Amino acid sequence: FSCLFNDKLVEKIMLETNKYASQKLSNSQSVQTRMNTSQDLKKRTNITASELKAWIGIQICMGLHQLPRVKNYRSSDPSLKVNIITNTMTLNHFDEIIEMIHVNDNTLQLPKNDPNHDKLHNIRSFIKGIIDNSAKAYKPSTFASVDESMIFF
Length: 153
Hints:
Elements: H1 7-27, H2 38-45, H3 49-64, H4 83-88, H5 91-100, H6 121-137
């Protein structure tokens, strides 16, 4: 996990998420969420690196152990409930992070009519970070071989 999501990448996502949350709060007079007031939301939106790592871990766990609805992971039915998810983060906080998660700065995005507009701007730095971290973590052995099905004849 730490090889792909190193501290530098987690820090970048955390900063961009907190920046987006601040922008969203300042641009909106009343934020419509499950919480009672925008003041409550303001207290909770600045996530920490450990909360972000926990959230990513929950996402990975949910991908491996798929259920029909997110609420099922916290169900009172023991056949559905996933204790590691329930014990890691509340559903409200999990949903707050989903609402605010950002991996790149929106203010740097070029308009759609610009010839240099990047359709992947919102996730470009994340993709680059994962590719760079994968390249650092994977050390192929000296006995690598290419299967003939990988080559087009």
